[in-house]
Amino acid sequence: MRLKRSMRDKKIAGVCGGIAQAAGLSPSAVRWFFVLLVLVFGMSGWVYLVLWLLIPSDDDYGEYGEYKE
Known about the structure:
The protein has one domain (1-60). The protein is an all-alpha fold. The chain has 3 helices and no strands. 46% of the residues lie in helices and 0% in strands. Helix 1 crosses helix 2 (27-39). It has helices at 15-23, 27-39, 45-54. The chain starts with 14 loop residues before the first helix and ends in a 15-residue tail after the last helix.
């Protein structure tokens, strides 16, 4: 499966949801791992922003999301 940002399972931009879906992990676990990396190991929030820009969206907004033709 190709890595894409999840539009259904997102809190900010869908980066963690997309990583979780591609790796077969829980989205909550990936989010907590990312927070741990930022707080404990000093990973910058810039990494998230770069991933947001580089990883394409899956364009699946779900039942109540934006309508796309």
